[in-house]
Structures are given as C-alpha cells and as structure tokens.
Specification:
alpha/beta; Rossmann fold; 7-stranded mixed sheet; 13 strands; 4-stranded antiparallel sheet; Methionyl-tRNA Fmet Formyltransferase, Chain A, domain 2
Length: 276
C-alpha cells in the first residue's frame, strides 16, 4: 500500500482502520475533528479515531478548519492518496485534488442512494434490507463522485447500529483492498453515478430518537436499532406525578411484537424494562 493520509472521526472510521490494520495498512497521518466536550461535566474528549491513532503512535492532526495552513500541513506529508471515512467535515477542492491518486471516500450505502451524513440510520428506518457499500472518488459535491467499486449486503434482521457499522466496515475494506491496486495501476475506470436516482439523508438530532410506544411496533424497533448509542431511542412516561424521559438500550422484535429488554430512566442507571 502506498503512503496515505486517513480522514475520519466516528466509530465507523475506527472499524475501517481496524480492518485496514489487519491487512497491514496503516496511514502516515490521521486527520480527525477536534476534541469536543462530552457528558454532564463537558469534559473535552478526542474522537474515537484520535484515540485509536494514539494507541498506535500514529501522528494525528485535528484542525478546527481545513484552511490554507491546514492544507499545507497535510501536503507536507507527501502522501499519494487520501482515504476518507466518516470524517465530519467537507474537504475543499484544493485539498481533494492534492494527491496523485485523488481522494477516495468509503460510503456505507449503494450510491447514489442514501447520500449524506446518516446512510445507515436511514436504511434501517426505511427497512431497506438490500444494501451495501461504495468506494468513490470525491468531487466537490456531496457523495457525488464516480465509483471505483461497490458490494452488496443483505440484512435479514436489523442489528443495533454499532453492529451494522462493523459489518459495513468489513465489507468496505474488502472492496477497498480489491479496487485500490487496480486504480493505482491505472487498470480501473471509474463509473459515473446515476444522479437521477440519488436520495439524501439528514443530520440526526436528539429529538429524532423520540418514539411513541402506541405507534407501529416494527417501526419503533427500527428506530431503537437505528439510534442505538446516539441519540438513543427514548419515550416519556409518568412516575410519581412527574414526567420522566426513558432511554431504550436493548430491544427485540419477535412475533410481530416489540419487546423492550433494558432501559435507562432519567437520572438513574440501566434497569430491566419490567422494573420500570
């Protein structure tokens, strides 16, 4: 593998790095987003990718913005290709065109479907079980560039989001390992996306996780799986004449019924749902 710079921030990005590491591919530099305050005490916390890089002593760079100074810093690394997976920032034109073999993006959907920031959550909510992953060359538009390769994945039972991310990362790196040598050798011609078939996803908010237990149980189950981890599916209930928020941390869908296993009532630890 030629020297490459890796752009990523999320847990999906970490799963991609895990799979690349298994193949013996480690980036020369990892670019991630800056530390953010988390938790009730708002402790400044690095991204999962930054933490991953630190344990392996891989140089990291977490610029607030990809301005000319940041671009020059990345340029000085001298990498021949950039790989992006769930980075969280839009890369400017002068950055994506820097490397000899362009900037490659790993996107966990069958593009042009589910462009944007939340493809996995969106496919769960849509119950779109014939899905997959795409490796594409980044251009100036969102998830718009030509494709180097794709692979399909059929989902039979929706797992929690974290597990789906893991499955998609394994598949994505399999495709990446297949297409990159061909791309670098000049034997692979990128394929333009059918832009007329494009669909788009939105940025998720905390309020998206709210469910009404009286609504369609299968849709509620999919919301629980799609929003597991963050923002977490939740509902409100009355306890001691007080309205409290309850997070759902574990659920199943069996015999056309939603079965909630574990929850976290507001201000308390995780308990079995039956004890609520």
């Amino acid at each position: 593998m030629i020297p490459f710079v890796y752009f990523g921030s999320s847990q999906f990005s970490v799963f991609i790095l895990d799979e690349l590491e298994k193949l013996g591919f480690l980036p020369t530099l990892i670019v991630s987003t800056p530390d953010k305050p988390q938790g009730r005490k708002l402790v400044m916390t690095p991204t999962p990718v930054t933490l991953w890089a630190r344990t392996r002593k891989i140089p990291t760079f977490t610029p607030e913005s990809l301005n000319s100074a940041a671009i020059n810093h990345i340029k000085d690394i001298g990498a021949d290709i950039f790989i992006v997976a769930s980075y969280g920032k839009i890369l400017p034109k002068e950055l994506i065109n820097l490397p000899k073999y362009k900037t490659i993006n790993v996107h966990p959907s069958l593009l042009p479907k589910y462009r944007g920031p939340s493809p996995l959550q969106s496919m769960i909510l849509a119950d779109d079980k014939e899905t997959g992953t795409s490796i594409m060359i980044i251009d100036e538009k969102m998830d718009h560039g030509p494709l180097l390769g794709q692979a399909t994945l059929t989902i039979y039972d929706w797992p929690p989001l974290l597990e789906l991310k893991r499955q998609m990362a394994v598949l994505s790196v399999q495709v990446l390992a297949e297409v990159l040598p061909q791309w670098i050798a000049g034997t692979l011609t990128p394929k333009e996306q059918d832009h007329s078939q494009a669909t788009y996803t939105k940025k998720i908010t905390k309020e998206d996780g709210r469910i009404d237990l009286k609504e369609d149980p299968y849709y509620n189950f999919r919301k629980i799986q799609a929003y597991s981890g963050w923002p977490s599916a939740f509902f409100f209930t009355e306890r001691h004449n007080k309205k409290i928020r309850v997070k759902i941390t574990s659920a199943r869908f069996e015999k056309d019924k939603l079965i909630i296993d574990k929850v976290i009532p507001e201000g308390k630890g995780e308990i079995p749902f039956r004890d609520l």
